Amino acid sequence: MDPLVLHVDGFWNSPYVFSVFVSLTEKKLPFETRTVNLHERAQRKPEFQSLSVTSRVPVLEHGSFRLSESSAIVEYLEDSFGPPQYPALLPAAPRDRARARQIMAWIRSDLMPIREERSTATFLYKQAVKPLSPAGRAAADKLIAAASAFIPEGRTSLFETFSIADADLAMMLQRLVGNGDAVPAKLRDFAAAHWQRPSVRAFVEHERPPYVAY
Ligand SMILES: N[C@@H](CCC(=O)N[C@@H](CS)C(=O)NCC(=O)O)C(=O)O
After folding, report:
1. Nearest C-alpha neighbor of 56 from the set 14, 11, 94
2. From atom 13 of ligand 1, which residue's Cα is the shortest distance away?
3. Ligand 1, pocket-test mutation among 6, 12, 13, 16, most atoms within 8 A of CB
4. How remote is the CA of residue 175 from the centroid of ligand 1, in Å?
5. pLDDT at residue 51 above 90?
6. Nearest to 89 by CA among 100, 105, 98, 99
7. DSSP result, 152-168
8. Who is most buried in 5, 18, 66, 120, counting CB within 10 A?
9. Could you tell me if 27 and 86 are in contact, meaning their C-beta atoms sit under 8 angstroms apart?
10. Per-residue pLDDT tens for 106-147?
């Protein structure tokens, strides 16, 4: 098999890197990681620019093929290493697959005040945070309403089996849960269940250098 190399941010706190790292780990694929120190603007170096084209992490190398954009990488992994030989990242039923993609696209394109006021560094590096601003609270309420609608009652997964949309949604909810913001019990249970998942632990517990704000 062509070797797989994942280019990650130096602080291991990119939610997009997280999604791809968890996908590779769930599929039990052997892969190496290479760090790109964004705070040193290493993404602008010509060698990374030519590799990534877009100068952002994550980038997956699979042999001579290079791909950026986390959702494209997840889909590529699912197409290249699909079930039944490898564990699935997306549900099998078309409507569930579409819902998973909807949630993934929404998480990547909305809720900016939460991403700003509750950056992943706040809980992965345990930084002090201020109370949510009115815009942050409005975004939190929107996240809580949508997640409550998406997650079926009595379940700690979106669908019958794990999907990468679960991990993405858990990471977004963890921004609130991990900072002590009020979240309904159903969503806390959902986030806690996924936070214990071995693929998620492997990312959360990965060694990190001291954080430098940039
Ligand atoms: N839509 C992209 C977002 C990737 C992204 O924003 N990566 C950030 C790190 S979290 C990055 O590389 N920033 C460096 C830059 O934009 O210069 C994805 O899903 O992969």
Report:
1. 14
2. 56
3. 16
4. 18
5. yes
6. 100
7. PTT-SSSSSS--HHHHH
8. 18
9. yes
10. 999 999 999 999 999 999 998 889 999 999 999 999 999 999
